Fold this sequence. Notes:
The complex is a heterodimer of chains A (about 110) and B (about 110). By secondary structure, chain A is mainly beta.
Amino acid sequence: xxxxxxxxxxxxxxxxxxxxxCNHSTISGTDYIHWYxxxxxxxxxxxxxxxxxNVNNRMASLAIAEDRKSSTLILHRATLRDAAVYYCILREGxxxxxxxxxxxxxxxxxxxx
Amino acid sequence: xxxxxxxPKYLFRKEGQNVTLSxxxxxxHDAMYWYRQDPGQGLRLIYYSQIVNDFQKGDIAEGYSxxxxxxxxxxxxxxxxxxxxxxxxxxxxxxxxxxxxxxFGPGTRLLVL
Lengths: 113, 113
């Protein structure tokens, strides 16, 4: 299985940018990079996903390295509501029921006021 | 409001008892999923269903059963064969096919008495 590696925890200050790294050195050419986050005692929430190019949406930006072996989730201005566990996940497989999403332990982001 | 509902929020099970966790979605999604989360851990896939009347085992299906008789409903039964059922159970759904962006419910916390 293609795997991702994330730091166990990170800290940030409110209203500052946050860069959450993810390594996926065994990624294959058809694997999408997905990010989800999970607030305490809630279900995960989709954040963003991408394949090769950098992606932006209203929640965050995703920067993907040129060799695709790493990516970074960028929260442009952290708020206290961004404190959560962030999961970097590869959607690996060849399609249909052969796809797979594997959620690891993620990165616990603490945001200081 | 469209979304996924899970009930109950907390569920207590006695030894040797089967219990059923409810998952309902009004998003008109074809695919639905069940995950288990243990404290401080990521999510592990129990079962998934791509369409009505079809479902597949995930990574930890032993001791669990599901049904998919209606598009909007995907109940999970935790049987007495599951020896360590205490966990946080999460239901999710996705549109545009299996393993696309997943939308999660609020979860059910199962405790064994």
